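user: can you give me the structure for this one chain? tokens are fine.
assistant: on it. calling the predictor now.
[tool input]
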Amino acid sequence: MEQTAPTRKVYPVAAFNRRLAGYLARVRDVWVEGELSELRRNPAWATVFLTLKDPGSGACLPATMPRSAFDALAPALAEGERVQAMGRLQLYEARGELSFRITAVERVGAGDHAAALERLRRTLADEGLFSAERKRPLPRFPRAVGLLTGVDAAARGDVVAAVTTRYPAVRLVVAETRVQGPFAPAAITRALDALARSEGVDVVILARGGGSFEDLLPFSDERVVRAVAGCPVPIVSAVGHEQDEPLCDLAADVRAATPTAAARLVVPDLDELRGWLGRARQRLGDGATRAFDRDRVRLERSRERLVAAPGLLVERRRAGLDRTGVRLQALSPRATLARGYAIVRSEGAVLRDTGAVEIGTPIDVELGAGGLAARVEEVRP
């Protein structure tokens, strides 16, 4: 009996690859962990090519990632880092090559993160983002204080309580946002920009309570650090515990150990201000009293000098007249006559030369006491 061969379903390669690609496209939002290797990136390419490698077995999975998403990672990924990548399977139909299209990636392991953060810290430090010359002083009396913190975070209550207790006159502008997870850096950056542009805000507190190393990573994200460094108003960073040092602490103008300490830094204490004003008022009063006493003593001395001045002036003038009288007396012809000299006149004129008279000329002789009338009997040259 003749048998009929079964009918075969045969696919051309292109159709098979297309159908396989359709099946693979259903596998999406899968997380894969591996070590980053064979990284290939070119500014002219829209896609970054890499391989996820299992360090235990050596198994490899080719992967791709949009270059824009890869470049947005901070710090940048480097070969050898262990990551968890979320994505979907896809098939390059022309060559039948399977790859894993990555849509999100997270680093794994504190050591890897610490190494990446150290690289980023050195890069930003070289740019001068952490230099002391960039640090700005905090305003003495801020009009409004911006507070950026997590949703329902305990840090919010600590800051609000401390600020309102110390300086009730200040206005608080609070922005609650994500502070943990892969979406936190973008949310923090947006909230910080909005706070800095709020009317009257003169200083911003960036506050987050303690947490693990991974919990605080958003505050070391390059986007957040650059936003803190570029903020138009001074920033006080109070992130984590005192032993923690996220990179935003280095870029901020002032670092506070706790959110409460940050509140004490940004606003003055009202009781201290009142005490200071009281002491200043006392100093002003004492200064005014001392100035009044000095002026009173000076005026009294001036009055005494004015009263004594006429008498002193008369005495000085009398002494001057006495000295002048003595000099005049010494120069007076009378004083000369008193010493035995005489003044001889002829016809009213004083004789100084014998050639001016002849024998028989009548003359007058004035002595120190009285005078004589005489006639010239002899002329001697």
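assistant: here you go. Residues 117-271 form a domain with the Rossmann fold fold (CATH 3.40.50.10550). DSSP finds ten helices and 14 strands in the chain.
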